[in-house]
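Chapter summary example: a protein plus zinc ion.
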Amino acid sequence: MSYIRCNFCGATNLRSRKRCRRCGMGVEIKAKKSLQTAFAFLIAAVIFYIPANIYPILETTKFGKRQASTIVEGVIAMYQAGDYPVAFIIFVASILIPFVKIAALFYIIFSLWHNRCKRLEQKVWLYHLIELTGPWSLIDVFVVVILVALIHFKNIAIIPGIGATSFALMVVLTMLSALAIDVRILGERCER
Ligand SMILES: [Zn+2]
């Protein structure tokens, strides 16, 4: 007899059941729908990754002079100013992690779609890492928000640029993509 776990409340149900015996939520694995949804969110995230990196994340107006900087420009400026730890954190949080995450999600979705069961532990581990780092990816947006809220010097005005909005949307879409993947597919497809 085989069993299936309810994604909502965690109860173990008989495989033949359509709804959870405890909470009534659907327990069937809809692999195709889950992977298609995840893939759609991921494509949208990739689309927003581009403006997030080429448009300014921050616009500063000082003495009437307008200055805009993208994420990369920010990292370079911090590095040149000698703020190595800050430059490193921004580089890792804003450029490296989103890129690695998108690549990892493509890999997971692709291998689930094609029923590739090699290195299963690695995939599960990778998936949990993506889930775990999700909320931290918004650290950049928080920095911008805090800067905007804190700095109210007379002649300096800071406003978030299109880059910041795109970045936030990209992070949210990546998280939605990870959430759309039903992890039970890994077990279902690869059970020996
Ligand atoms: Zn349940």
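Key point: DSSP finds seven helices and five strands in the chain.
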